[in-house]
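Q: What structure does this chain adopt?
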Amino acid sequence: MTLHIDHDVCLNEPSCPAALSCSTQALFFDPSTQKLFFNADRCSGCGQCVSKCAYKALSLFENSTELSAYLENISKVRTSFSSKLETLLGLK
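A:
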């Protein structure tokens, strides 16, 4: 299992309900970076953290191929959105 944390969406709080719900402590707040961190070796794949994230900043994947496809799709969507927003605002 691998977990993607979208740090553009995540609030990265020490009291994150998703991290606190992780019984294996695979997802935890790192005070040195002030961000959530994921340790794949500890993950049981239960998905509890994903369901507890109110901001939908977490996505759980079976393997790195699924994660790569997801990241590619997200990148395309964000690029398209940014371009359309710039056009609407007259910045292009």
